[in-house]
Each structure stands twice: as structure tokens, then as C-alpha cells.
Amino acid sequence: MTYLSDVAALTRKDLRVELRGRDTLPAMLLFVLSTLVVFHFALPEGSGDAAAYGLLWVAIVFTALLGLARAWVPEHEHGVLDGLVLAPCDRSAIWLGKTLATLAFLVAAQVVALPAFVVFFQPLDGAALAGVLLADIGICAVGSLMSAMAAAGRAREVLLPVLVLPLAIPLVVGGVGAAVSEEGGRFLLFLALYDGVFAVLSWASFEYVVTE
Amino acid sequence: MGLALLLALVVAPEDADQGISQRIFYIHVPIALTAYFCFGLGAVKALLLLWRGDERYDLESYVAIHQGTIFGALTLITGAIWARASWGVWWTWSSNQLVLFLVLFLFYCAYFMLRYSLEEGPRRARSSAVYALFGVALIPVSFLAIRLADDFIHPTVFTRDGPQMSGTMFATFCTCWGAVTLLAYVLYRIELAGKRLDADLRELREALQ
Q1: Is A182 on the interface with B (CB under 8 A)?
Q2: Which of A100, A193, B36, B160 lies at a C-alpha separation of 20 to 30 Å from A25?
Q3: Is the pLDDT of residue A33 over 50?
Q4: Predicted ipTM?
């Protein structure tokens, strides 16, 4: 139980920092909306429905990257991470807290972005929405670990997309498949498998990334 | 190596459909398998590093992945040549293995970026090790993903009923595979020795100052 309450406390801390500072969420929202507008002009007249779904996924991945790039910045600016690592809680709780907070931002951004997508382009069905949610979990789980790694490096803004994008390719395959294919269930199953594998891997390896 | 080349170029019978271009199979596939093997070795060493905490594994894991990336690049090049010869295009998205290799190649290039942007030390060793472990998890997951988004242009030579080729072809293939693995191993030892020498030299220089 203490593990869960640690995680809850860490998530709450991130959400509160965001509520007071408003650094990340407004940027993600504006970014995803302006990306959708750019896509309207990037798609030539008469291009198929499927192309719009593909572009939605590009928007989702890059919005997630934007959120992840900010994820550990407050910790690094004020030396909070050292304090967190020293705190008497399991280190993986730090990762889980950060993942949940980033997930909350991403979902919040999508609560606005997906209706906007439906209005601008295509309707989305249940399978597509489930695909978006599962892919969000995957990208936040992997991304918050990669972001912690990249934050320690010299070129962190450049490094993060390079680290995360190859890992996000299967998520895009799954997500687009769930939206486009007639057998969306297979793709949802695949996304769930991805989430499981990489969440466990990130959870287990986070400790090695943050300790000196 | 020489024997393998001779077998591949002269002895093995020509494929009925693809003719001479099929011979690149004896180079392309062993290189690809060796690249997988190097990535796997890198991940095993990475796991050992995290488990035992011995600095030695860091360098070994790095060198294995370095070799894997070189062989991966060669796979992409030979694959492109083969695709050009037999399908008439340099690149095709419908070939699962080529796409998988491109994803892995990008992933392991990012590994080097990560490594060179972190400060040297145990933290860099552990971060690289974690990333290398993500790599071996990514191989089957991407494979599955690409299979799901599939198409069947690529000839599947190895099926569940065993290899679909004649005896001489299979023998040639095995020799080539052995030769490439040997080459990879020799390169691995040479690079490892070089890197160790480098590290020792740096330590000596620091001790002298």
C-alpha cells in the first residue's frame, strides 16, 4: 500500500506543479491543434480517409514527445531528482508517478484534440479510441524512462525524439491498424502486449538510470 | 571466408526463378543473422552489467552493438541490391525483414547518440545497458508489428517444415553463415582489444600527470 501512496503522492506533485506553472499542457494543446490545421493544408484535395488517420498518429506521437521533453525539466532545474532518489521509497515509484502524470497531460490534450479531429476530418470509432488510449500508455511508459535518460545528457532536446521514435513505430502500426483495419481487435491486442512488455521493462530498469 | 565465397559463387546451383541475383542470398542472410546475433550478445552483456555491476561488460556490450550496427548497415545495402535485382526497386516497404532492419538500425544509431551525449561513468554504462535491453525487446515486437501490417512479397525460405532449399544450397548457406560469424567474432575481438588499449592508455596518462 505504501508503494501506491508514494506513486499517488508523486503524481499529485507533478499535477500540482503543472497547475501552478502551466508550462506543459497549454503548449501541448496548442501544438496538437495547430498540427491538425497544418495537416488540413498538407493533405491534397481528395486524398483518402486513411491518410487523415495516419496524420492523426503523427500528431499524437509528436505531442507526446513535446510533453515528455518537459517531463523531467522541473526536476533538473531545482535538483529535485537527487532528493527523490534519496527519498525512502522504491525508485520505480518515481517512474510510475511521472508516467501517470505525463499520461494525464497527454489524455487531457487529446480530450480536446480528438473531437477537433472528428470535426475537421473523420469520425473515430470505438476501436480507434481504444487504440489511442493504449498507445498513450505505451508511449508514456517508455518515454518517461527515455526522457530521464536523455535529461542527463548534453543534447537532451535533440536526443529524446531520436531515442523514442524507433520505439514508437510499433505503437503507430498498432494505432493506425486499429483505426483503419476491419479486424481492429488484433491490433488492440498487439498494443496491449507492447504496453505490458515495455512497461515491465521500464519499471524494472528505471532504478539503474537515475542512481549515480 | 574464401571457401564460403567460392561455394557461393561457383558451386551452389542457380535458383530457377531468380538466376544469378539469388547468389547474394548467401551473403545477405548470414550478415543479417550475424547482426541479430551481435545485438543479442550486446544485450546479454548489458544484462550482465546491470546484474553484476562489472565495468568490463560495458565495453563488451558497446563493441558487440557496434559490430551489430555495422552488419545491420551491410544488410540494408545488400538487401537493397537484392531487391533491385529481383524486384526492380531499391527499396520496398512490403518486405518485412528490410523494414525491421531499418527500424533496428535507427534504434541502434540512437544508442550511439545516447552514449556519446552522456558523461563517461557508471551511469552512462547503465543507461546504455538499459537501452540495449530495450533493443532486444524491440526486435520481436517490431517484427510482430510489421507482420501485422503485412504483405507477402519477401520469399520466406525458412518455414516451419525446415529450410526450403536443396542440399548443396543449404551447405553453402551454412558455410557462408559460419564464415560471416567468424568474421564478426574476429572484428569483435580486434575492436575490443583496441578499446581496452585505449582505456588503459588513458588511465596511464592520468596516472602520470
Answers
A1: no
A2: A193
A3: yes
A4: 0.80
Cα–Cα distance, A29 to A44 (Å, whole number): 25
- Domain containing residue B177: 23-155+163-208
Answer yes or no: is B11 within a domain: no
B137 close contact with A: CB closer than 8 A: yes
pTM: 0.80
Please give the mean pLDDT across all residues of chain B. Answer: 77
CB contact under 8 A, B123 and A155: no
Whether B113 is in a domain gets the answer yes
Residue B66: pLDDT above 70? yes
Q: How many CA atoms lie within 13 A of B62 on its CB side?
A: 21
Judged by CB atoms closer than 8 Å, whether chains meet at A201 and B133 is answered as yes
- Chain A: closest CA distance from residue B30 (Å): 24
Answer for the pair A97, A10: CB distance below 8 angstroms, yes or no. Answer: yes
Is B1 a member of any domain? no
Is residue B1 scored above 70 in pLDDT?
no
Nearest CA in chain A to B118: A153
Contact at CB, B137 and A201, closer than 8 angstroms: yes
pLDDT digits (tens, 9 = 90+) for B89-129: 777 766 677 788 888 889 988 888 888 888 888 888 888 88
Mutate to test the interface with A, among B93, B120, B127 (most CBs of A within 10 A): B127
Min Cα separation B26/chain A (Å): 29
pLDDT at A142: 92
**In chain A, what residues touch B149 (CB-CB under 8 Å)?**
173, 177
Is A166 within 8 Å of B107 when comparing Cβ atoms? yes
C-alpha cell at B122: 557508471
Express each pLDDT in A90-143 by its tens digit: 888 888 999 999 999 999 999 999 998 888 888 888 888 888 999 999 999 999
d(CA B70, CA B22): 23
**Residue B154: pLDDT over 50:** no
Rounded CA gap, B145 and A163, in Å?
Answer: 19
Q: Which amino acid is at B19?
A: G
Q: What does each C-alpha distance from A159 to A68, A69, A143, A144, B110 come to in angstroms? A: 12, 10, 12, 13, 8
Question: Which residues in chain B are closer than 8 Å to A193, comparing Cβ atoms?
Answer: 141, 144
For the segment A191-211, the average pLDDT, to the nearest whole number, is 89
Q: What is the rounded distance in angstroms from the CA atom of residue B61 to the CA atom of residue B78?
A: 25
Helix (H) or strand (E) holding B103: helix B96-117
